[in-house]
């Protein structure tokens, strides 16, 4: 049983917008893209955080798919794995996590040489880097503000995948520095109390909550109608 669970954790995230670009799920990611642009229309460069109340709610999958749909518009996009405790981005895109955000926050290397090509036009990736002993302290450093300033000059969209907000303080630190935050909720799994606590934590961090993404939401007959119509 332990082996099976470990194998499941190591599986890559589902990039449905690549594998099935005309699916209902892919279109919903594009709808979220439109809603985000309407929510913060005045910013020429947008830094957006994706988090959840607890683990395994789909925030990393959501962030990766959203990065792709933003890149589809021809904009320059950077996807960052800011989970320096349990990184997953390198597995999603099948790359090596030898350097990344943690290294930059320690003053090692520079942004241009640390980002990796995703294989998708307009989309770059910044891995978490080697797991440090003090992720929260690194995120509170002035170096993060300098990095974000540099990112704004190089990219139109910067999407940040953070740890769950109720697990560690990292997400609160990041939410305070980002232009907006998206809270991902796993329908049928997330408890209402946890979601409310996550919302309150974001409010405490003075985060601008763009909205909530309901992951694994059951389809209705109306969804199927529009899917057939689009086909």
Automatic annotation (TrEMBL):
PANTHER family: FERRIC ENTEROBACTIN TRANSPORT PROTEIN FEPE, TYROSINE-PROTEIN KINASE. The keyword Transferase applies. Keywords: ATP-binding, Kinase, Nucleotide-binding, Transferase, Tyrosine-protein kinase. InterPro entries: AAA_dom, Bact_polysacc_biosynth/exp, P-loop_NTPase, Wzc-like_C. It comes from Planococcus halocryophilus. Residues 56-176 form the AAA domain. One of its GO terms (molecular function) is identical protein binding. It comes from the Bacteria. Belongs to the CpsD/CapB family. One of its GO terms (cellular component) is plasma membrane. It catalyses: L-tyrosyl-[protein] + ATP = O-phospho-L-tyrosyl-[protein] + ADP + H(+). This is non-specific protein-tyrosine kinase. Transmembrane segments: none annotated. CDD domains: BY-kinase.
């Amino acid at each position: 049983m332990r082996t099976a669970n470990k194998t499941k954790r190591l599986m890559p995230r589902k990039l449905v917008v690549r594998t099935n670009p005309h699916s209902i799920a892919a279109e919903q990611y594009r709808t979220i893209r439109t809603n985000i642009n309407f929510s913060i229309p005045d910013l020429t460069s947008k830094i957006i955080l994706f988090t959840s109340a607890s683990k395994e709610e789909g925030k990393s999958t959501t962030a990766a798919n959203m990065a792709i749909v933003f890149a589809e518009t021809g904009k320059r996009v950077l996807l960052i794995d800011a989970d320096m405790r349990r990184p997953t981005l390198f597995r999603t895109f099948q790359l090596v996590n030898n350097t990344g955000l943690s290294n930059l926050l320690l003053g090692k290397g520079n942004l241009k040489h640390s980002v990796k090509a995703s294989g998708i036009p307009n989309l770059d990736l910044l891995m978490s880097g080697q797991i440090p002993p003090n992720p929260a302290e690194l995120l509170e450093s002035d170096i993060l503000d300098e990095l974000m300033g540099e990112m704004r000059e190089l990219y139109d969209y910067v999407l940040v995948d953070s740890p769950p907000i109720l697990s560690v303080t990292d997400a609160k630190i990041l939410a305070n520095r980002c232009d907006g935050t998206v809270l991902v909720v796993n329908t049928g799994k997330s408890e209402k109390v946890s979601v409310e606590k996550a919302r309150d934590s974001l409010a405490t961090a003075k985060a601008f909550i763009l909205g909530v993404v309901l992951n694994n939401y059951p389809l209705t007959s109306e969804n199927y109608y529009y899917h057939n119509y689009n086909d």
